[in-house]
Amino acid sequence: MTAVNDGRTAICPGTFDPVTLGHQDVFERAATLFERVVVAAAAVSGKNTLFSLAERTELIRLSVAHLDNVEVDSFDGLLVDFCRERGAAAIVKGLRSIDDFQHEQQMAMMNRRMLPEIETVLLMTSPHVQYISSSLVREIWALGGDVSEFVPEPVVEALERKRH
Question: Tens digit of pLDDT for each residue in 83-102?
């Protein structure tokens, strides 16, 4: 079944392993632009993640609990199929650098080719969180560093549980 594009729903997709304050910045800003935002954690095959899909989804849910128009889900398969199922008008992605832009531009064009009615909205991450990435957070954490200024509190707690 295909949902109708309502023009008011945006999907914020990603692996979110773990969700960071940079991601949260994008979610909060998307929530001001769209009536409904669905943060969608992607199941990833062939990639070792620190957190399971269920854990990532729950950490996102805890991190966006303060946003009334944001819901959390997960998907396995093509993003455009998930967008079609949810009736989304837009995909919202955050950009930190020109490298992100080149990758996201290619993905946006491919998604547009497969689902012409979907728009991709690229938001520049706010300067105070622009340098944060999940991979750097994982690396700092793995080496025993403090990541509390880079991730929401539920993630700090989850990382502590993983350490013990």
Answer: 999 999 999 999 998 888 99
Q: Say whether pTM exceeds 0.90.
A: yes
Closest CA to 72 of 60, 84, 90: 60
Strand ranges (E), the chain: 9-14, 36-42, 70-75, 90-95, 119-124
Residue 97: inside a domain, yes or no? yes
Domain count, the chain: 1
The answer to the question of residue 48 being in a domain is: yes
Tell whether 4 is covered by a domain: no
Candidate list 29, 84, 86, 134, residue with the active-site label = 134
> Does the annotation mark 96 as catalytic?
yes
Q: Which is the catalytic residue, given 45, 47, 113, 135?
A: 47
Domain span at residue 121? 9-163
> 97 catalytic, yes or no?
no
Catalytic residue among 8, 36, 96, 138: 96
Does 2 fall in a domain?
A: no
Q: State the pLDDT confidence band at 1, using cuts at 50, 70 and 90.
A: very low
* 47 is known as an active-site residue: yes
Q: Which of 23, 29, 84, 93 is catalytic?
A: 23
Is the link from the previous residue into 116 a cis peptide, with omega within 30 of 0? no
